[in-house]
Amino acid sequence: MRLWKAKVTGLVLLVASGISACGGNVHQEAQCEPGQSYVGPPTWQPEPSALSMPATDRDWLALEAPDAIQAHLQAALAEARDLAGAEAVTAALIHPDWRWQASLGASSELDPAPFYWASIGKLMTAQVILQMAQEGALDLDNTLDRWFPELPEADKMTVRHLLTHTSGLFSYNEDLQYRSQQEDEGPEANLDIALAHPLLFCPGTQWRYSNTNYLLLGLLIERIDQEPYAASVERRLFAHSTLRVATSGNSSDVIYALADPSQRAFFPFAPHWPYAAGSVVGSAEAMAAYWLDTLRGERLPTEIVLAQYAQLYPMFDEHTWYGLGVMAYTPTDNTTWLGHSGGTREMSAVLLWMPEHELVVAVSHTGTESRAEAIAHRLVSRLEEIE
Fold it and tell me: What is the DSSP pairing of strand 115-116 with strand 88-95?
C-alpha cells in the first residue's frame, strides 16, 4: 500500500487550521445569482464498490487481539512515536475478529486517556444535521436567511453549502487578529470576525475549507434543539459512548498539544475553542467504535451515510475529497478510505475505515508536526507483515 507523504502534511495542517489552498476570487466581493453551478475542479462520484461498509452480522468488539498481533502493533506504535518525535500517542484498530488499543506518553490520570480529535468532530456535527433533516426539522437545501439573515447572500446559501464547504464564507480562524488572541471569545464573536471579511465566492461555485461553516451549523443545532451544542451532540450521538464534547469546564482533562513551551504565550489553545468545527475528546477505542457503529447504520440509516459520499469535492491534492461532513482518501488507484482528519499546531488525528483491510483505525498524537496518517500506515503495514 502506498501512502502519500508530502501532500498529506499540507492537507491536515490546512484541514486543522482552516487555511485553505483552494477556491475562487479570494477576498473579492462576489456578485451572485440564485442556484449558481459549481465551476471548480471536477468532483468525484465513487462507484458503489468503493463504498463497502462494515459487515453488520459480526460482533466486531467481542475479542481482544491475539498476543502476536498485540506485540506487533505495540512495537509499531512505539517506533512510530519515536520517528515522529511525538510526546503522546494513542491508537485503536478494530477488525471483525479482534480489537486493539494502546497509548504511550499520556499523562492523564484518566484511563484510557482522553485525547483531542480536532476537525474529526465535524463528522458529529454533520450527523446531527442529517438527523434533523431526517426528522423534518430542516432540509439540506433550505437557504440560511431563515436562521441567519445577516449572512451575505443568505438567500442563496444553503445548509448543504455549509456541510460541503462550498458556502464561500471566510474561515474566522484565518483572521490575523483572531490568530493573535490569547482567548477565544466564543462562536458569536467568531462569526462576527468571519463576517468582517467579504464572501470569497458565490455559494456553490467553488470549494474552500472554512471552520465558519461548522460554527454556523453548531448555532443552527442550538436553535433547533433549544440546548447547547455539546448537550445536543452528547444526547443524540454519545448516549452509549464515552466520547464527549470539550467545553470550558472539561478541557483541562484532555491530552492536547500546545506549541513549544517557549512559544506557548504566543499560541494559547484549548480543545473547546473550535466549537462545532472540532471539539470532540475521548479514547482512541471509543472513537474507532463510534465510526464503526456509524458506518453500520446505528446513528443514521445506511443510505444516508452513503449519500454523504455521493458527490465529493477535491480538496488540496488528487488524493483527498470532501463530501457531506466526511472525507474520502484515495492513496492508490484501487484504494478508498473513508473518515476524517484533523489537527492543530503540534497535534494530529485521523479516523479511517479501510475496506480492503476490514479495519477501522483511529490515531491521535501530540507534540510534533508529523501526521497521524503516517502512524496509521505503519500500524497497518505491520499487520501485513504477519498475515
Answer: unpaired
- The chain-wide mean pLDDT, for the chain, equals 88
CB atoms within 10 A of CB 253: 15
Q: Which of 129, 115, 58 is nearest to 299 (CA)?
A: 129
Q: What local confidence, expressed as pLDDT, does residue 253 receive?
A: 62
Cβ atoms within 10 A of the Cβ of 101, count? 22
Q: Are strands 327-332 and 320-322 parallel, antiparallel or unpaired?
A: antiparallel
> Which range, 262-266, 271-275, 305-309, is most confident?
305-309
Cα–Cα distances in angstroms (integers) from residue 92 to residues 288, 306, 361, in the given order = 7, 24, 6
Residue pair 233/128 in contact by the 8 Å Cβ criterion: yes
Distance from C-alpha of 94 to C-alpha of 100, rounded to nearest angstrom: 6
Residue with cell 449558481: 36
Q: Which residue shows C-alpha cell 431563515?
A: 146
**What per-residue confidence (pLDDT) applies to 217?**
98
Beta bridge partners of 360: 94, 353
Number of neighbours of residue 372 by Cβ within 10 angstroms: 32
Beta-sheet strand order (sheet of 280-282)? 115-116, 280-282, 244-245
Instruction: Place 386 in a pLDDT band, splitting at 50, 70 and 90.
Output: confident
Residue 209 near residue 221, CB atoms below 8 Å: no
Domains, the chain, ranges and CATH? 6-21+49-386 (3.40.710.10)
How many CB atoms sit inside 10 A of residue 127's CB? 23
How would you classify the pairing of strands 335-344 and 88-95?
A: unpaired
pLDDT for 21 equals: 38
Q: What 3 state SS string does 245-303 have?
A: ECCCCCHHHCECCCCCHHHHHHCCCCCCCCHHHCCEEECHHHHHHHHHHHHCCCCCCHH
Question: How many Å apart are CA 363 and CA 232, to the nearest integer?
Answer: 25
Cα R_g (the chain), whole angstroms? 20
Overall pTM > 0.85: yes
**Distance set, CA 312 to CA 237, 338, 364 (Å):** 24, 12, 25
- What DSSP string runs through 110-165? SSSPPEE-GGGHHHHHHHHHHHHHHHTS--TT-BGGGT-TTSTTTTT-BHHHHHHT
